[in-house]
Task: structure prediction
Amino acid sequence: MATKRSVGDLKEADLKGKKVFVRVDLNVPLDDNLNITDDTRVRAAVPTIKFLMGHGAKVILSTHLGRPKGVTPKYSLKPLVPRLSELLGVKVEMANDCIGEEVKTMVAAIPEGGVLLLENVRFYKEEEMNDPEFAKKLASLADLYVNDAFGTAHRAHASTEGVTKFLKPSVSGFLMQKELDYLVGAVANPKRPFAAIVGGSKVSSKIGVIESLLEKVDILLMGGAMIFTFYKAQGHSVGSSLVEEDKLDLATSLLEKAKSKRVSLLLPTDVVIADKFATDANSKVVPASGIPDGWMGLDIGPDSIKTFSESLDTTKTVIWNGPMGVFEFEKFAAGTEAIAKKLAGLSGKGVTTIIGGGDSVTAVEKVGLADKMSHISTGGGASLELLEGKSLPGVLALDDATVASL
Result:
């Protein structure tokens, strides 16, 4: 993917007094009382917004929240205004819609350095259809476009891709830039040895990632319930562990591919098993090749933790996507937490550690080590697609960076 122009390339003259349509990803979890339970995404959007405010721009923020079907009050963005205002140090105004006359009036009233939040852009089905007329209405509010919503960059929606046809320049925000630098940079040109740790429950959702990584990594560690499909493919007994029967041949071919590419692929040698899927299950450690009937594997065992940790000692770049076990249950969190601690330690020694979205992020935050990692991706689906080597429509649509001529 070509390097894209970034908001940092814009000067005060490009921004002062200009209306800037900024697509952010403020899709945060809310509790039953509509309080934000995790404001990571709000905080991640602040640097770009503050930069625009500081250069005298009139900032128009657009985001989605949840998966509303039409106008759905529980998915209104109103609960976000207090936290956003607090983080930005200004009173953020909010519109009751994202297009229309009332919105235009509010946009006209934004002072230089002021911020207006538009209502949930997914209240319109045209957003996800990437309807050109709807995109044109959104674009008509502004003079230029900044996309800082990496979490939705893998979707070609009106507010992520459609608006770029009507607004120039269209540039990336700082968060988008950082995601691309780390994820594309790490995969395209990693410092070696380069290791990937892939976990999660299903091989099927990670096939693309595993196949793509086998072309690039020196070491691949696998954990999570997906390992049982590999064990069964090798003829081991897996008890009542989760297995994707239709993926056994695929598992075999991935193991063969790793061999032919000379990738050191490590599966756990021992697992923590349980007699039921519950927090209070009876548990014990057994060799990976012998899970008894009626028992299921829910975490990697202590020997595997040791082997995995040692294999990472030589690395210079590590990408982690997907937990090692059912870390939501304290009893089966040891594997995932050990990996988080190991990566935090490696980070301190100058290793580039990238947490590729989704459950791994939750796990790292749970152990309180998020700030120790080189980069934590804010986009689960988007980071997976990048690691699979796919292009992201929301990124492709932005202006390419021009290489300064000497």
In short: The two ends are 23 Å apart (CA to CA). The chain has two domains: 7-176, 190-387.
